[in-house]
Amino acid sequence: MNAIAEQRLRIFNDAKSVLWEREKLKALAEKYGYSLKRFNDICRAYAENTLGFSRGDYGNFKRCYRHFVLFHLNTYEVYIYYDKFASSQEKEEFHQKVKAFFGKIIQEFKAPNFDKQIWLQENNLTDCDLYKVVSIFGNLEPAVVNVVYNTFKFYYDYAESVNFEKTAILAKANELGITYQAFISLINAYGWHILKMKDDFINKRRSPRGRYVDVLDKIRVSDNPDEIHKLFILNNIKKGHIIEYVYIHNKDLSRQQQLQLEKQLLQKYAIYLEMAKKQNNKKTNTLDRFVKEYFNSNKTLYDFCEDNDIKRESFLKLLSKMPDSDFKSLVRERIRKEPPVSIEYKNEDDFRMLALYIRSGITVDNETREFDLIDFFMLFPNLNPLINFHKMDIDPLDKTNISLLLDPMKFASYINKTSIMKGSITIGGVTLKEKELSLIIRFLEDNNVPLYDRVFMIACKRYINHTLDVSYLQAELV
Length: 478
Fold this sequence. Notes:
single chain; mainly alpha; two-stranded antiparallel sheet; 27 helices
């Protein structure tokens, strides 16, 4: 390494050691005999030419490194740095800090007069932050995890007190300043890990009033067979629900009226069962045809199922139920001889992480906001927003949340930044002009966020709401 390269390395490491704080950078620049701008240019050139950073990577690196070093667990920059920039040694050191942190707080949590809300305020954290750290860094001792999750009892107890009704939980989440998805995550953490309940325990614990009575009210007055069939099948109504509806939730009726209502609903239930049976037969015939089509094709089973939008498991289940025959043996033999195919999607873990962020939201300076498309492009630069993730092994609720986030990208188009900066944009009575718009565009470009119209409008709204961190750009432009 020559003298110039050695000096650039020292300059970069010195800037890194002071976390790129402006006043300290000024002192360093003066020490090396450079202007602040020249000093910054040398740091950027070293990052791009020697470390291989893109322009956006360098901006991300500077912003996120500070949060990572200072152990700001309430910021998503910590996770960006950990995932994208941290060396294996830095990751190991970070894991040790996480373990030490939780080892310390566990003792505090067990103290007799412990007030968790005061503790959270003093440490500039929220329950969502604790949940996020425990979820992402899953190498903590189970006993530690359980102590943390046990403190989420408040959320579970509240949800249970309102019968797990979404509107009531949403209102409470808004009152607490967290997202609905974050509230549900905290409920789940307590339910799954402390009460040892199953994934769908929230649905199972909703009262009959919440789940069945309103549906059966609609079935009771409907004469449309298709509508009745849809209501039965979508809400999984059984005969027991009908009996409970008639004799528990309609006590104001006379005995004769109850019997008449029961007869009426059971007749509709019988029609539903008959329609369901016909549909199942039709489906079975269709799958039977698929077996023959597969056997006569030149495709692997995996490719055939993909092309025909049928689950591989459904195909194999049907095959197992077919009567034994020479044809069935030939199909099985063909499948056995096919090369093994991995149906694991390489992006599944990324989408599970994305779902976690959507549920938990983004917390900065003790304020939680919803995860948006800008966060998506910054945290998951390798994910295609238009990828078909619906066949991945992901919770159905998470798939819905991901769809709500990414579906707008199907209709997105690129902006013309030159014409944008020549004009102005007014949102909610606030007008953004050339200087503000140039800062917003520079932020997006620095962070490798594509300049789609829908993403740009989110950035403008966040700028107005002071949740778009352009402070580092304002410092450089001074």
